[in-house]
Amino acid sequence: MTSELAAIDWLGRGWLLLFAFTVAVLLVAALRKPCRHLFGTERAFQLWLLPPLAMLASQLPHAVVAPISVWSAMVSTVTFAAILSTMPVAPVHAADWRAWVAVFWLAGIAASLLLAARGQARYRRRLRGAISMGGVASHCPVLRATAADVGPALVGAWRSRIVLPADFEQRYSDVEQTLILAHEAMHARRRDGWWCLLGRIVAAGFWFHPLAWWALSALRHDQELACDAAVLRDHGAQRRSYAQAMLKTQSAAIALPVGCTWSLRHPVTERIAMLKLPQPNPFRRRAGAGLLACLAIGVAATVYAAVPSPQAKTGDGLRDHYTLQIDVAMGGHADSMHFMRCLAPGAYTDVSGTDTSSMSWDGRFEVSPVADGQLEIRSQVDTRFDRGGGKIRKQSAKPFVRTTPGQQATIEFGEVVDDRHPGDGTRQDNTIRIRLTPSLGCDSKSLSSTWHPINVDQQATSRSARVVAQSVAAKAGFVLINAQALDSRAVTLNFEQMPATSALQLIADIDGLRAVFDDKRVRFEPK
C-alpha cells in the first residue's frame, strides 16, 4: 500500500510536469523560427529556457481552489467476508494500476538513461589513444583522436574536452582550423554540454512523449545555430571559410548524447543559409532579450495559476483538504475506536488497534475526489487473529468506497467462525467494521488531529498496570481519561515496536477492560 499511495502522489506530480512540458514545447515550436529571424538565433535558442521554467512552476505551491460541490448523498457499504481456515494464509495483494503505471514510467526512464550512457561510453571509447595537442589557445583541453571520423566535437558536460580528427591539419586550412577551434571553444564557454545533458534527462523523463524527442533534436539544432552566430560576431569576415569547414566535416559515425559535434546530422543547408543572413543589430538583440524575459515570466505565471497546489492554507483551515472520521468496531461490539484525520487529496493516514489479545488490525486510508462531487476512499486493512494452538490467521484486503461529503461509508471485514474449542457451542466473532465519514475542509479540531500512531518499545518489570499505561500514553501523546480504572497491582510487560494503541489495549485486557479511543483521548470501560 505504501508503494501504491506513493505512486499516486508521484503520478500526480508527473502529470503536472507533463502538462507544463507539453505547453511550453508547443510554444517554443511556434516561436523559434519567427524569433530567429527577428532577434537572431541566439535569442531563439534561449527560448528553450521555457520548458524547464514551466516544469518548475508546476511544482510550486499555489492558491487555494474552491471546494468541491456537494451533490446528492450516497452511502456505500463494502463487505469482505472470508472463509477462515486453520492454516495461515498469505495476504492478498491487489496491485493498483497507478503503481504499475509508475513502475512502467520509471522503467522507461531507466532504459532511456542507460542507452544514453552506453552511447556516451561508446564515443569516449573511440577517444582511447587520443593525444593532447599543445600550443592551442583554449580553456578546455584539446585532444587529437586516432580516427578521422571522430570530431571536431566538444565532449561531456563537466571536464569537457575539445576533440579534433586525426587529419585535422591536412583536411582544413589554417583559417578553417581557427574557426573550428573558435566554434568548439564557444560551445564550452556557453556551457552547451550542460544544455545537452539537461535535454537528454528531460527527454528520458518523457520517453513516451513524441514531443520530447523532437524537442531534443530541435534544441541541438538551435544550439548549433546560436553557436555559429556567436562565432561570427568575432569572425564575420570569414563566413565563406566557415561554410567550407562545415562541408568538409564528416558525419559522426557514433552519436554523442552529451556534447556538441560538427555533424551533418544537423541540417547543414540551413546552417549555411543562416550564415548569409545579416546579424541583428544590438538594439534588436536587447529587445529580444527583454521580450524573452517577459515571455518566460508569463509562461511560468500561467502554469503557476493553472495548477493549484493542495498545500495552500486559508484562515479557516485547509479548504481543499478533507476531514476523515474513522469509527471502528471489532468482534461484533459497538464502536470502540474513533479517529479524526485531516488529509490532502491523495495523501494517506495510518491507524491501528487491538480488540483483545487475539485480534488486532492496521489500516491505511486516503481520500481523493472523483466525478460528480463524490469522494473515493481507498484503503488497506490488515487483520490478525490468534485462534489458539499456534494457529494465526492473517487477512489483507484493499477495499475502496465512494460516497459524498458528510455521508458515511462502511467497510466490513472478517467472519464469525467456530470457537477455538469446537463442541462447546460458542462462536468467535472475528469481524471488523470500519465506518468512514469524509467531509470538505479541515477545521481547527481536525487540523490538531493530523498525527500518526507511533510504536512503543518498552519493558516494564513489576510495575502497576496504571503506571505502565500512563508511561505508554505519555510517549504516544494520548490523554488517559480514567487511568484510576486500572489495577495498581504489579505486572511485567514487554512491548517491542508495538503500536501504542495495541499496547494500551493489552494493558486494559489484564484488568478485563476495554480501551476506547476518541482520537487522542483514551478511557477504559468494562467489556
Write the layout of secondary structure elements.
Layout: H1 2-39, H2 41-46, H3 50-58, E1 77-80, H4 97-125, E2 131-132, E3 142-144, E4 153-155, E5 161-164, H5 168-171, H6 174-189, H7 192-205, H8 210-234, H9 239-248, E6 259-261, H10 268-276, H11 282-306, E7 318-330, E8 337-343, E9 348-356, E10 359-369, E11 375-386, E12 392-397, E13 400-403, E14 409-418, E15 427-442, H12 444-447, E16 455-464, H13 465-476, E17 479-480, E18 490-499, H14 500-510, E19 513-518, E20 521-526
Parallel strand pairs: 1-14, 3-5, 8-19, 17-20
Antiparallel strand pairs: 2-3, 4-5, 4-6, 7-8, 7-15, 9-10, 10-11, 11-12, 11-13, 14-15, 16-18, 19-20
Would you give an account of this structure?
By secondary structure, this protein is α+β, with helices and mostly antiparallel strands. Helices cover about 40% and strands about 25% of the residues. It is built from 14 helices and 20 strands. The chain has helices at about 1-40, 40-45, 50-60, 95-125, 170, 175-190, 190-205, 210-235, 240-250, 270-275, 280-305, 445, 465-475, 500-510, and strands at about 75-80, 130, 140-145, 155, 160-165, 260, 320-330, 335-345, 350-355, 360-370, 375-385, 390-395, 400-405, 410-420, 425-440, 455-465, 480, 490-500, 515-520, 520-525. Strands 1-14-15-7-8-19-20-17 form an 8-stranded mixed β-sheet. A hairpin with a 5-residue loop joins strand 11 and strand 12. Helix 1 (about 1-40) packs antiparallel against helix 3 (about 50-60) and helix 7 (about 190-205) runs antiparallel to helix 8. The longest helix has about 40 residues, at about 1-40. The model is unreliable at about 1-5, about 65-75, about 80-95, about 310-315 and about 445-455 (pLDDT under 50).
